[in-house]
Specification:
Purple Acid Phosphatase, chain A, domain 2; seven-stranded mixed beta sheet; 4 helices; alpha/beta
């Protein structure tokens, strides 16, 4: 299934090896041939976690994140959904889910084909979550994991999350910044999908070790994605 006719804003086509994907404006990744939807870093219940630490934020981030994810699932009808780690913001996040939010999550998981990849924030997922729980998964020849590997061996291909990439683009005396997908044809790091998640500039140290040479950033705009080679991006946020 393609994104044509789904009502989803224009995405960006990209490849990892021979596999074709569409980076969606909402921050998810779509694999048309396998009808698979990939998201990273939902960080559900981050708002309540901050509130417990004395930093008061409106407690609506979980509902907003799940509502956006539901819209994608309803339109694309994926056969598989992969959550690439840090789906829950902390080990007690599931206990803080409001009943309507848990019901919404249950509704989404009822689609089947759900795969939870564990992350550093959620190494122990609650038993009631439906679907597979793994440290890594495979999509064809591509390894799916939460944290990008320090080095890809041989012809290994990788999709990961964890780093919340953000790019800054100089533009006529000013600059614009936004969440982005970053990839070089072998490795792809997804933007954080969660409502309260920030971003790390693609030239920050963690990215330098992963993308030593030329790469592309697919920057999320209000209505579409914009693709820039690395030499068009600002090195500071």
């Amino acid at each position: 299934m393609s994104i044509a006719g789904t009502g989803i804003a224009a995405g960006a086509n990209l490849h990892l090896g021979a596999e074709a994907f569409v980076a969606l404006q909402g921050g998810a990744l779509w694999h048309p041939a396998r009808t698979a939807l990939l998201v990273a870093d939902l960080h559900l219940e981050k708002g309540t976690s901050f509130a417990r630490a004395g930093h008061l934020l409106p407690p609506y981030d979980t509902r907003a994140t799940l509502t956006r994810l539901k819209a994608l699932i309803d339109r694309l009808q994926p056969q598989a959904v992969y959550c690439l780690g840090d789906s829950l913001h902390d080990r007690r996040a599931a206990d803080r889910l409001l009943a309507p939010d848990r019901a919404l999550l249950d509704e989404l998981m009822a689609h089947g084909g759900w795969c939870w990849i564990t992350g550093n924030h959620d190494p122990d997922l609650p038993d009631w979550l439906k679907g597979e729980r793994v440290a890594e998964a495979r999509l064809g020849d591509i390894v799916l994991r939460h944290e990008p590997s320090a080095a890809l061996g041989g012809m290994e291909l990788e999709i990961a999350g964890h780093l919340h990439p953000k790019a800054t683009v100089p533009l006529r005396g000013t600059a614009i910044s936004g969440r982005c997908f970053i990839e070089n044809g072998r490795r792809l790091v997804l933007p954080a999908f969660g409502q309260y998640t920030g971003g790390l500039n693609v030239f920050a140290d963690p990215f330098r070790a992963l993308f030593a040479t030329r790469f592309h950033a697919h920057v999320i705009g209000r209505e579409r994605l914009f693709t820039f080679p690395s030499d068009r991006l600002a090195r500071a946020a």
